[in-house]
Design a protein that fits this description.
The protein has 405 residues and is α/β, with parallel strands linked by helices. It is 38% helix and 20% strand. The protein has 15 helices and 14 strands. The strands form two sheets. An eight-stranded mixed sheet has the order 5-4-3-2-1-6-8-7. A six-stranded mixed sheet has the order 11-10-9-12-14-13, sandwiched between helices. Strand 1 and strand 2 (15-22) form a beta hairpin. Helix 1 packs across helix 3, helix 10 (287-295) packs across helix 11 and helix 11 (299-323) packs across helix 13. The protein is globular and about 55 Å long. It starts with a strand and ends with a helix.
């Protein structure tokens, strides 16, 4: 029987998230997280999702590096009869944050791919090194197995040059690879396609605005299944107000802080990426806590929420204009899927654009994809839980399955 399982790895700087899926029915066999790698209090949480005895197992012990982390993951999988040496394992799929313009599709990893991902480290200094470490470790553990890179940026490579280019000197931009790449691509791809099915249509027949709202947040305009614009740019800093990132800002603010505030480039980088957004505005980046404070009359939290919503509405309106016709506005990710007040506020006042939210439908908590707009609304408003791991697994398996035939 052909191998049908895919292990999905998402390697961060100090963590590894993983899921094992069977692509015959897209079922999950196991999932887990190793966090605080390199610290004395490393933790591994593993959950078998099939058969009997499906209780989560947790271990707290020092895990020195990603090699040790992946070996620990392999041991946990083996305890459930799902080890990395299983003949049922078809491939390992890796999330890679930045693929530049070179990678527009999932790619089987070889030395040339590794070199290109490494070359992109200057434009993804926090993410690509960790992704590379995870890939190299997995390749060492299973050198015989296809390893596939699925890039966050790939879905956005269909943007036209008019959307992808910054209005700066072309020679300088090309020399330093300065352009808009976009991120969260696996989520935008999955959610836009799932939204089309929710409407009973094919992806190529619908225009969708996807709002991926988590601690990191991005919007995309998807025409006929292809991204034509997205809010993140050269890095994940551009665009919407996020948990700790500023999103759009006048570039001259940076020069002003250098000259007047005597701040270094590293200090400003830290300010805009880690001390801005919601946490910079009100001291909290958890939308649940912000809403609680608003309910208690906290004006600082209210202003942070209002700024967050104002930016969100601007992008909805901008992408409506870019697309010309919109079939659905879709909310996803942690905030988008769970924060009903955010969805309601983002759409409020946009009735002339055909957008409305039904209060009763919007208040329902569910893990299912669903419409939250009233029947009379010209444009559907939907909530679609994202599933980046499944998207990575599907893309990985589609690439390697012919090898198993």
């Amino acid at each position: 029987m052909n191998a049908t399982r895919v292990l999905v790895l998402n390697s961060g700087s100090s963590s590894v998230k993983y899921q094992l899926l069977d692509m015959r029915d897209s079922s999950r066999l196991a999932a887990g997280l190793v966090e605080r790698i390199g610290e004395e209090t490393s933790r591994l949480k593993h959950t078998p999702l099939t058969g009997e005895g499906g209780e989560a197992r947790e271990h707290s012990r020092p895990i020195a590096d990603h090699e040790e982390a992946l070996k620990a993951v392999a041991e946990e999988l083996a305890r459930d009869g799902l080890g990395l040496d299983s003949p049922d394992l078809a491939a390992i799929g890796h999330r890679v944050v930045h693929g530049g313009l070179f990678f527009s599709e999932p790619t089987v990893i070889d030395d040339a791919v590794l070199k290109e991902v490494e070359r992109l480290i200057p434009v993804a200094p926090l993410h690509n090194p960790a992704n590379l470490t995870g890939i190299r470790t997995a390749m060492a553990l299973r050198p015989d197995l296809p390893q596939v890179a699925v890039f966050d940026t790939a879905f956005h490579t269909t943007m036209p040059e008019s959307a992808a280019r910054y209005a700066i000197d072309v020679k300088t931009a090309d020399e330093h690879r300065v352009r808009r790449y976009g991120f969260h691509g696996t989520s935008h791809a999955y959610v836009s396609r799932r939204a089309a099915r929710l409407l009973g249509k094919e992806p190529e027949d619908v225009n969708v605005i996807v709002l991926h709202l988590g601690n990191g947040a991005s919007a995309s305009a998807v025409r006929g299944g292809r991204c034509v614009d997205t809010s993140m740019g050269l890095t994940p800093l551009e665009g919407l107000v996020m948990g700790t990132r500023s999103g759009d800002i006048d570039p001259a603010v940076i020069f002003h802080l250098m000259r007047v505030g005597n701040m270094s480039a590293d200090e400003i980088d830290d300010l805009l990426n880690k001390k801005s957004g919601l946490i910079g505005l009100c001291g909290d980046n958890d939308m649940r806590e912000i809403r609680r404070r608003i309910d208690e009359g906290d004006q600082e939290a209210q202003l942070a929420f209002d700024i967050y919503i104002h930016r969100l509405k601007k992008y909805i309106g901008a992408y409506y204009a870019v697309l010309g016709r919109v079939d659905a506005v879709v909310f996803t990710a942690g905030v988008g899927e769970n924060a009903a007040p955010v969805r309601e506020a983002a759409v409020a006042g946009l009735e002339e654009l055909g957008l409305a939210v039904d209060g009763a439908l919007n208040s329902v908590r569910s893990d299912e994809a669903r419409l939250i707009s009233p029947e009379y609304a010209r444009v559907a408003v939907a909530v679609v839980p994202t599933d980046e791991e499944l998207e990575i697994a599907r893309q990985t398996y589609a690439l390697v399955a012919p090898r198993n035939d």
